[in-house]
Design goal:
single chain, 423 residues, alpha+beta, four-stranded antiparallel sheet, 9 helices, 67% helix, elongated
């Protein structure tokens, strides 16, 4: 069966998401519900949203003032005895001027959007990491299967070598080498078992709970699958990329903050209204004296007297922060676009390499092993060559697994780069 270029790339990922998604999809579902990392980001995003919603033209709750004035200490309380005494009640409220109010709300909106993007990025990153762990897990399981099969073949070949030692005294080094290789395989299997358990523990951490340790044969088969049908490619739009949108929101917030710094030269007006209430008293001559109530209204606003010493530098500092945010966005744009192009190139190169290993390299070594084994079986000689050929089968099969693992890793990176905010 001929394989079209890049078929392996797309078919592996499409099958991986459909057939294998029962387990990976379950890990992602559990992580979405239980991951502490996501809960932290979601709480921060909710806090930023609340901080944005609380912004209004009234900058703070009004101040209520109650007091008594001009009460001589010697005659306290003297409300009814001293015409200069009185009770006053006042209310003051700070109000934002229209432009200051607008830019303050815009800055808060930018920060809220940035934190919302952070939460979405955290979710996409978690999906990416879960895919990577799952990818490494199945790779380790498949590698363990290859090494276990290789160990059994090498043991059977070693038995044949041991029986042929009388006829071929020169095969002693091959016997010793085979035993050493078997020991190396045993060590590899010990390390793989540790690696598998470590990956399950890391999945536990990412998901926030203990995950299922069962992986079906169908899921493993899907990881190795091939298909002639071309799967749909990913679509990358920088303007919809989560990381770009977060940094874009940062720039918008810093732009609003610069305008806010300028408008803060006259940032607010404080309105004051007060009533002084005094009781009228009858003087010695019988006339009413000193009892008129007083009402006053005033408005205050800061003056930029210290502009040259303070305000100008504050505005300049905010301008530099905006410039830094713009340059960060520009750098991220280049990085994201180049990362996408790099992963596309890596995907295509890995697809071709896997195709070569699947249909040329591994079959060639397997054929060589089969030929040497047939010769050894028929003539009682050449078992060492058969064993060496089989070791190449194991090695090339491991290399093919590594390429498949790397391809899955690349596909998950593309999935992450192409991720859009879920509606």
């Amino acid at each position: 069966m001929s394989v079209k270029p890049y078929c392996i790339v797309f078919c592996i990922f499409s099958t991986f998401l459909s057939s294998e998604a029962a387990s990976l999809g379950e890990y992602r579902r559990v992580a979405k519900a239980n991951s502490p990392r996501l809960k932290i980001k979601e709480a921060n995003a909710a806090a930023a949203k609340d901080a944005h919603l609380q912004e209004s033209f009234a900058k703070a709750n009004p101040d209520l003032t109650l007091g008594i004035m001009n009460a001589p200490l010697a005659t306290f309380p003297a409300i009814n005895r001293d015409s200069m005494s009185g009770i006053f009640v006042g209310v003051s409220q700070k109000l934002a001027l229209p432009w200051e109010d607008h830019y303050r709300k815009a800055a808060a909106a930018g920060r809220a959007e940035s934190d919302a993007r952070e939460a979405a990025i955290a979710a996409a990153t978690l999906d990416w990491e879960l895919g990577e762990k799952y990818n490494a897990l199945i790779y380790s399981i498949e590698r363990r299967a290859i090494l276990n099969a290789g160990k059994e073949i090498m043991r059977s070949n070693l038995a044949v070598l041991s029986r042929s030692i009388k006829r071929q005294a020169n095969i002693v080094p091959q016997i010793l080498e085979t035993k050493a290789n078997l020991t190396l395989i045993e060590n590899d299997l010990i390390n793989i078992d540790f690696e598998i358990e470590r990956l399950f523990l890391e999945l536990d951490t990412l998901c926030g709970v203990t995950v299922d340790r069962t992986l079906t044969a169908a899921e493993r088969k899907a990881w190795l699958a091939e298909n002639d049908e071309l799967a749909q490619d990913f679509k990358f739009e920088i303007s919809k990329n989560l990381q770009y949108r977060r940094l874009r929101a940062d720039v918008d917030a810093q732009t609003a903050m610069l305008s806010l710094s300028k408008s803060s030269l006259f940032p607010e007006v404080t309105l004051n209204a007060s009533m002084l209430m005094r009781q009228q008293l009858v003087s010695a001559s019988g006339t009413m004296a000193g009892g008129d109530n007083l009402f006053s209204v005033s408005a205050t606003t800061p003056l930029p007297i210290f502009y040259s010493a303070k305000n100008r530098h504050e505005i300049d500092a905010q301008r530099e922060r905006l410039r830094a945010a713009e340059e960060t966005l520009r750098e991220a744009t280049l990085t994201l676009e180049n990362s996408w192009k790099t992963e596309i190139l890596r995907r295509d190169a890995l697809a071709k390499a896997i195709d070569n290993y699947t249909h040329s390299i591994v079959p060639a070594h397997a054929s060589a092993h089969k030929t040497h084994l047939a010769t050894a079986t028929a003539q009682g000689m050449g078992v060492g060559e058969a064993l060496a050929a089989y070791q190449m089968v194991v090695k090339s099969s491991e290399e093919r697994l590594k390429l498949i693992r790397d391809l899955h890793s690349t596909l998950y990176k593309l999935e992450f780069l192409a991720a859009k905010e879920k509606s």
